[in-house]
Design a protein that fits this description.
This is DUF465 domain-containing protein. With 81 residues, this protein is an all-alpha fold. It has one domain. Helices cover 72% and strands 0% of the residues. The longest helix has 30 residues. 1% of the residues are buried.
Length: 81
Amino acid sequence: MGLANRTGRPGARISALNMRISALRARHAALDARIGELRGQASVNPMRLSNLKSRKSRLRDEIRAWEDMVRVLAGGARPAA
């Protein structure tokens, strides 16, 4: 857990995690836009589209994991297992 070990202050850790989440959300939005562009094309490579959708799904899962970490560090409820 490299991000959490950079500082001993929980607030700083949460801030760093929120920055990471923001960056991941931007990547997720860019993939969503690219998928929309491909769907609008007459000839779409189904493998390319599938690859982008898989990457988008993995990003969504990663975002959720980081959000769960922020909730735990902030003293909120622990995520469901």
